[in-house]
Structure formats: structure tokens, C-alpha cells
């Protein structure tokens, strides 16, 4: 990767040139670089409004980039170790949807872990693709779901040789990464492309101590939230591609279905600037982040009542090959507090906001933006919290195994569009769900749209509710009632007929 080349910022330079020329804007946006809304300019800054421009001569067009967006994307591809990069202004969500639509046609199958993010489920609904769900391993101590293994993929591909893609998360929110290279090897031996949700992995390729990125592991497509863990603005992400299993024209075509025709040049410019920063200084910046992460881990690991998710917890476990040390999961059960309670104490007593909390844990994310002052305040706050706020004892530990995966009778898309009725949870056995019911922990849906309620699932949901676990996804916040399909038989027949047609 040429440092001199990566020093360039083609898109940023083009925006500056447009401003410097003093062109009189008879075009959108209507604020005309701030002239039309002085308060907006005063509050957001004249540079921001000055580059809030639109597709035109000299600034290229995101739907068919041939000029400065193309050059900026090519530099991003090189820096993120890909062959192609596509700028996204609607988050990694739009990249995930595009990956699924680029690889599978309606009714075709994709192999996908059960703990996939809601953006993947929305991708299934939009595309009409049929999921083959894999149940990931769950760590009962931390109550979190891990990844999937090459063996899981091998088995799934043997059972579903007609699957058109394999979808993988690298790494999970909690920083656990699977043996992605092994998964790629298995999938590629059958010419099946691997699509990776890298919402929490945009920084991986810039430091050797971090888990391998999707592109380094040989995956075909990866949607990476550059805004989450490198320095671009919220909503800006990258879709990365390599290899010959997926046609780049197809990816571009799919992106053009859903991308806005008015992309924010502020977001696009931030991708250009963040790419330059990571290409030139990413390794050094991440080395400093890792030093802070290891220091925080060492300091917190001595404190009573809390336990950190560490390499030793994942060693040898299925679906766990690497741990990203910059994501610090802290189990707080032995403080006698839930993760949600600790989140609230940190926010209101110590001015600290965590990334997320669940029943047992809080998650802290460290990035290139953290200073020593910040991490020292974090450690000092925790030292105080464990003595001042600990209630002693341990909050309940739920150890029952997840119920078996239910039958999927209708695609998520048909379930989404199907006619529904509301029934009480107690009477739902045999009905086809129109909703997803998700339990935190471990963040895995117990039932997805299109799947049939079993007695096991209903009993499990009732036990979780009695344990006080957070359940999400239903219209009824108390989960007394669930939404199910009315036209079960018609839809099932329609789906079966469609699957047979696709298969024949
Ligand atoms: C695992 C995972 N995938 C995908 C996404 C979607 O990313 P974005 O917010 O950039 O659209 C998220 C967002 O939090 C996520 O956690």
C-alpha cells in the first residue's frame, strides 16, 4: 500500500476546489452552503455547510462513480485490503441488505447464524431470501452468544447444497471472532460466497494483534461500520469486495436500488478522511488503543465482584477463535447488580456512558478516540463503584439450554406481509409467528417471523419472563399476546410451491 498515494483525499480535495472557485449555487441543497440558514451555519460550522453539496461536474455521482468518488473508493479498497470498496451513507445496514440481495434471489437459501443483527433479518424480508439458521454456542457464565464453526457450515451445506451464500458475524458485538478463514475454505470448496457483517470490525485489518478482517480471511463481501470503530461520521460505512464468486456489477446494481440519489457529501468526505488516517496512522493509533485496553483490563481484573471476558474464557470453545481486546465485556453479577443497573450508576454518578448493557454484563468500547485521562477516570470510577454500590450476593443465573430451533414454514418476507391476528402466548402452540421474540441475554431470537410456536418455546419464554429477563421484538411489551399469521395454510402452500419452482 503506497503511503504517498494514501496521503491523497480525492473527494475532500474536489469539495474544497468547488468552494474555492466561488461557484454560485443554483442547485440543491436549498440552504445554498449556509446562505439560506445562518443559524444552521453558525451551529454546524461553515466548512460543514460549505461542503454539503450534491452530485455534479467535478464531484462525481455515487450511483455510477467514475471520477473523484471512484478514486476515493479505490484508495479505500487498497487500504482495507479489498479489490473493490463502495461508500455507504446509510450505515452498515444498507451494506448487509445489499450483500444478501447481491448473492441470493427471492426464495433462495442463505446460511445465517441465529444471532444475526436485525439489519440481516430486514435484508431477508426485503429480498425474500429463505434463511437456514444456525444456533451459535452460548456462554452460560456471561450469557452471550458466540460465533459459528467451519464444521457448522460444512454440515449446513451438506444438508442444504442449494444454499447460495454463507453469512458470518466478525466479530460479535462482544468482540468474539470465529475461525473465518476455516469457514471461507469450507464455503469456497463448494463455490459458495461468504458475506460478513463487520459492523464491529472496521479496524481489524490495521493491527496484527486484532482478529483477521473478513478480507484478510478471504471472504467475498464485508459490510464494515467505519463510523463505529474508525474515524468517519455516523452512518458512513464501507462495503468491501474481493474474488470472483460475486459479480461487482451485480453489487453495484443492488446498491443502486436502495442508495439515496442525494448522498451526503459530508459523510462521503468523512470516509475519505478516515481512510487516509487509518492507512497512514492506523497501526500506530491502534497500538496506543490496545495499550490502553490492556491497562484497563489489568486494573479492572483485580476488582472484587466483577469478571472480564478474556481469552481464557473462549479458548477451545466452538465459534471462538479470537478476542478483540478493545471490546471490554464486564460481568457484574457478583456485585448483586444487573448490567442495566451498573449502566445507570455509571451514567448518573460517574458521567460514563457504556456501549450496551444486558442482564449480566456491560460492554465498553475503546477506540482511537480514547485518551489516558478518559481511561483513568473509567478505572477510578469502577474502583469506587465496586465498593460503594455493590449489593453483595449474585443476581440469578439462568442456565437452561435454549429450546430446539422451531420449524420454518414461511419465509420472513411472507410472514412480514401476511395477514395476522393476535393470540395469547399460552395458546400460541402450532401457530406461525409474525414477530421475532428475542431474549437478552443471549441476544438470540427464540422464534423468528415464519416459524411455528412449539410448547418448548412457549414454556421457555414464560420461564425467562419469570426470571425477569428482557424480551424484545413483540408489539405487546408485556408479551402476554403474540402476533401470528391467519392464513397459515395458504401461505405455507404458497411458500412450498415457490420453493419447489426455484429448486426445479
Ligand atoms: C452486529 C451488527 N450488525 C449490523 C449493524 C448495523 O450497522 P449500522 O448501524 O452501521 O447500520 C449493527 C449496529 O449496531 C450491529 O451491531
Strand order of the largest sheet: 1-10-9-8-6-2-3
Q: Tell me the overall shape.
A: globular
Report the CATH topology name of the largest domain.
Answer: Aspartate Aminotransferase, domain 2
Ligands, ions, cofactors: pyridoxal-5'-phosphate
The oligomeric state of the chains shown is single chain
Q: On the 0-100 scale, what is the average pLDDT? A: 93
Helical content band: 25-40%
Helical/strand content category: alpha+beta
> Which CATH C-level class of the largest domain is it?
Alpha Beta
Name of the CATH architecture of the largest domain: 3-Layer(aba) Sandwich
β-sheet strand percentage? 15-25%
Specify Rg, calculated over alpha carbons: 24 Å
Question: In total, how many domains does the architecture comprise?
Answer: 3
Main sheet: strands, sense, barrel? 7 strands, mixed
If helices are DSSP runs of H or I spanning 4 or more residues, what is the number of helices? 18
CATH homologous superfamily assignment of the largest domain: Type I PLP-dependent aspartate aminotransferase-like (Major domain)
Straight-line N-to-C gap = 47 Å
Amino acid at each position: 500500500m503506497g503511503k504517498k498515494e494514501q496521503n491523497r483525499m480525492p473527494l475532500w480535495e474536489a469539495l474544497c476546489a468547488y468552494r474555492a472557485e466561488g461557484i454560485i449555487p443554483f442547485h440543491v441543497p436549498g440552504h445554498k452552503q449556509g446562505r439560506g440558514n445562518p443559524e444552521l451555519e453558525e451551529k454546524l460550522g461553515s466548512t460543514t455547510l460549505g461542503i454539503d453539496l450534491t452530485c455534479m461536474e467535478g464531484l462525481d455521482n455515487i450511483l455510477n462513480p467514475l471520477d473523484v468518488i471512484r478514486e476515493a473508493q479505490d484508495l479505500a479498497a487498497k487500504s482495507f485490503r479489498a479489490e473493490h470498496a463502495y461508500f455507504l451513507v446509510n450505515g452498515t445496514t444498507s451494506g448487509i441488505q445489499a450483500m444478501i440481495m447481491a448473492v441470493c434471489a427471492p426464495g433462495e437459501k442463505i446460511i445465517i447464524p441465529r444471532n444475526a443483527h436485525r439489519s440481516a433479518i430486514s435484508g431477508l424480508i426485503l429480498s425474500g431470501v429463505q434463511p437456514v439458521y444456525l444456533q451459535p454456542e452460548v456462554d452460560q457464565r456471561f450469557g452471550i452468544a458466540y460465533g459459528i464453526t467451519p464444521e457448522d457450515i460444512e454440515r449446513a451445506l451438506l444438508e442444504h447444497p442449494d444454499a447460495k451464500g454463507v453469512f458470518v458475524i466478525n466479530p460479535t458485538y462482544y468482540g468474539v471472532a470465529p475461525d473465518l478463514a476455516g469457514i471461507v475454505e469450507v464455503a469456497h470448496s463448494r463455490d459458495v460466497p461468504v458475506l460478513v457483517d463487520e459492523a464491529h470490525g472496521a479496524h481489524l485489518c490495521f493491527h496484527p494483534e486484532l482478529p483477521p478482517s473478513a478480507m484478510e480471511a478471504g471472504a467475498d463481501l464485508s459490510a464494515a461500520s467505519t463510523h463505529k470503530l474508525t474515524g468517519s461520521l455516523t452512518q458512513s460505512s464501507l462495503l468491501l469486495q474481493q474474488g470472483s464468486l460475486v459479480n461487482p456489477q451485480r453489487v453495484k446494481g443492488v446498491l443502486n436500488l436502495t442508495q439515496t440519489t442525494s448522498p451526503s457529501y459530508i459523510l462521503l468526505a468523512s470516509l475519505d478522511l478516515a481512510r487516509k488516517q487509518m492507512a497512514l496512522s492506523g497501526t500506530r493509533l491502534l497500538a496506543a488503543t490496545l495499550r490502553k485496553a490492556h491497562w484497563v483490563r489489568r486494573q479492572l481484573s483485580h476488582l472484587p465482584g466483577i469478571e472480564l471476558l478474556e481469552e481464557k474464557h473462549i479458548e477451545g470453545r466452538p465459534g471462538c477463535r479470537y478476542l478483540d481486546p478493545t471490546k471490554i465485556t464486564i460481568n457484574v453479577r457478583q456485585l448483586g447488580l444487573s448490567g442495566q443497573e451498573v449502566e445507570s450508576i455509571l451514567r448518573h454518578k460517574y458521567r460514563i456512558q457504556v456501549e450496551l448493557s444486558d442482564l449480566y454484563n456491560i460492554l465498553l468500547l475503546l477506540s482511537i478516540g480514547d485518551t489516558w485521562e478518559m481511561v483513568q477516570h473509567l478505572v477510578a470510577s469502577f474502583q469506587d463503584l465496586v465498593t460503594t454500590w455493590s449489593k453483595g450476593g449474585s443476581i440469578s443465573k439462568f442456565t437452561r439450554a435454549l429450546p430446539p430451533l422451531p420449524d420454518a414454514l414461511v419465509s420472513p418476507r411472507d410472514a412480514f406481509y401476511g395477514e395476522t391476528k393476535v393470540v395469547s402466548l399460552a395458546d400460541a402452540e402450532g401457530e406461525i409467528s409474525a414477530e421475532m421474540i428475542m431474549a437478552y441475554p443471549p441476544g438470540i431470537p427464540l422464534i423468528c417471523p415464519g416459524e411455528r410456536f412449539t410448547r418448548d418455546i412457549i414454556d421457555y419464554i414464560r420461564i425467562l419472563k419469570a426470571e425477569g429477563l428482557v424480551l424484545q421484538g413483540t408489539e405487546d411489551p408485556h408479551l402476554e399476546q403474540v402476533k401470528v399469521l391467519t392464513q397459515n395454510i395458504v401461505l405455507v402452500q404458497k411458500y412450498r410451491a415457490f420453493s419447489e419452482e426455484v429448486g426445479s
